[in-house]
Each structure stands twice: as structure tokens, then as C-alpha cells.
Amino acid sequence: MRGNYKQFSKNFKKIFNFAKKLVENHKQNLDGGEESRDYIDEFLRQASIDKKANKMDSTFDMDQLVTSITNLFIGGTETTSTTLRWAFIFMIENPDILKKCQSEIDEYIESANISTEMIQMTDKPFLPYLQATILEIQRCANIATLGGSTMHRNLQATTLAGYNIPKDTYIAANFFSVHVDGRSFPDPDKFDPTRFLSEDFKSVQRHPAYIPFSIGKKSCPGEALANMELFLFISNFIRRYNFYVPNQKSQINSKSFYTTSLTRAPYDYQISFINRNDNNNNNNNKIPVAA
Ligand code: HEM
């Protein structure tokens, strides 16, 4: 999230008020059926159970609910969209890798005789190179540099790797350093999806130092959703389109064309999407990145 703090607080309040309205609407329209329609229904249901049981230490109160919804919106929107904006930059910079992903998708769709319009989650296991490319996009994008700016505080004094950490210290994990550490990722500046592939290139191997969503009990609760979103968006985009930089003087690049605030995000940019089946494009002033 870029811009100054005032703008951030203004946007935060807008989302907070929107969440409050959502909760009010749900309260008025609770349908009373067996099934909860969504997270808010389920939360309200539990709050009402706790209230009836006179449970004094219940955490199911309205402040918690509105704050949780706000967090889900804030945590769940810019993170995924920023990763997608990085994805296009890495694909523009690495046309051979884009082409390999497209070939893998084309071959899979042809061999499996898939008639579906859209690539779906069930197709994911058959596209290991694409999966590895998405992992590499996240490693190199490194959007949550300091844990996505979420701070943690230790409730008791402790020691870690020989360092004394007093009670109540604010701690931010430096994920950036982990993802560019040559001991874990040799030649870390190189965009290389094969670092996540098995020796025969047929399956994806998770790497213990790969932690874009953090680790432990406080790791990102949206990881599964984000992984689905990234796979579906990226696979369907690159299946259908090639990407072009419309302006040859464009400054778009992964090494310096970004700013770091709550997330590490590319500056705004323009690229053109050209349908891969469209042979009638006039490419005179465009830089082709994949045939
Ligand atoms: C590429 C996408 C995403 C990345 C890289 C990402 C990364 C992270 C990281 C590093 C944290 C901090 C964890 C910690 O404190 O140790 C976090 C927290 C969080 N994320 Fe995500 N996230 C992503 C997508 C999402 C999505 C889609 C949602 C929800 C719909 C979400 C919801 C949250 C929430 C609510 C927290 C705060 C959790 C807490 O304080 O307990 N995130 N995320």
C-alpha cells in the first residue's frame, strides 16, 4: 500500500466503515436457517450462543468481527494484486520462461483433450513448470519484505540464536533477506523456476526457506486462497495472451521500478495484452516478448 500515512488511515477508515455496514446488513437479514451464508453469519451465530450462555470471556464481539473483516480486505486485496503486477513484469523480462509456461499449458490441454474454457484448480498438478514459475515470482517479488509490516510482540523474555529478547519487544521478520540468501537460493538474483523443480523437472519441490506467507501460528490465513487466485489468474492470462511494453522507453524492470511501503510493489505501469491467436496485430511500436 503506497502513499502517505494520512491517505492510508483515510482508506483504512473507509474499509472499516464498509465492514460495519456489512455487519449491520447481516444482522438485519439473518435468515435463521441451518446453514450460515458466510463468515459474518457464522460469527454472529457464535456471538449469540456465547451471549445466551453468559460467557464473559467470549471474544465473539462486534469490534472483533468488524476488525477481522477489515483485516481480511486489507490483507487479501493488495497482496494478491501486487503479486500479479510483479508476475507480468517477470514474464516480460523472461520471455523464454513465459514461452515454456505457454507450451506446457498448450501441450497439457491438447494431450488431455480438455474442452474447458478456463484452466481450473484440478489442472494444477499437471502443470509443474507453471507452478514453479509462480513460486519463483513470489520469491523474487518478495512483497512482504518485513513480514508485510505485521509486527509481533513476545509476551515473555526469551533467547533466540544466542540473542536475549526482552519481554514486549516488537519484532518484524525480514523475509526479504531469506529469499535473496545465496546459501538457500544459489544465484538469487536470477529468475529461475527450475530451483523449485525435482531433478527430472516433473514435480514441484517446496523449499524450506521459501516463506512468502510467513511461518508458524501467525502465518497468513489467506495462503490457500491466495495460491488459488494466483494460479487461476496467471495460468489463464498466459494461456491466452502475450504481453508487450507499449512504449519502448518504458522504465519497467524488476530491479529498480518499485517502491517499498507496507508491501514491496512495482510503480504503476502500462502493458498491452495481445491475444495469442490474433495474427492481425500491428506490432510496429511494441516489443514482442513471446512468439
Ligand atoms: C500473495 C498473497 C499474499 C501474501 C504474500 C501474504 C502474506 C502475508 C504475510 C507475510 C503475513 C504476515 C504473517 C505474520 O504476521 O507472520 C500475512 C498476514 C495476513 N494475511 Fe496474508 N498474504 C497474502 C494474501 C492474503 C489473502 C488472500 C488474505 C485473505 C483473504 C490474507 C489475509 C491476511 C490476514 C488477515 C493477515 C493477518 C493475520 C494475523 O494478524 O493474524 N492474505 N499475509
Write the layout of secondary structure elements.
Layout: H1 5-28, H2 39-52, H3 62-93, H4 95-111, H5 128-141, E1 152-153, E2 158-160, E3 163-165, E4 170-171, H6 175-179, H7 223-240, E5 241-245, E6 258-260, E7 264-266, E8 272-275, E9 287-288
Antiparallel strand pairs: 1-4, 2-3, 5-8, 5-9, 6-7
Helix pairs in contact: 1-3, 3-5, 3-7
The structure holds protoporphyrin IX containing FE.
InterPro entries: Cyt_P450, Cyt_P450_CS, Cyt_P450_E_grp-I, Cyt_P450_sf, Cytochrome_P450_fam2
Pfam family, one: p450
Family: Belongs to the cytochrome P450 family.
3D structure, described in words:
- With 291 residues, the protein is mostly helical.
- The protein has one domain (61-288): Cytochrome P450 (Cytochrome p450), CATH 1.10.630.10.
- 43% of the residues lie in helices and 9% in strands.
- It has a 3-stranded antiparallel β-sheet. Strands 1-4 form a two-stranded antiparallel sheet. A two-stranded antiparallel ribbon has the order 2-3.
- Helix 1 crosses helix 3 and helix 3 (62-93) crosses helix 5 (128-141).
- The site of protoporphyrin IX containing FE has 22 residues, from helix 3 and helix 7.
- Protoporphyrin IX containing FE binds at residues 71-72, 75-76, 79-80, 83, 143-144, 147-148, 150, 212-214, 218-222, 225-226.
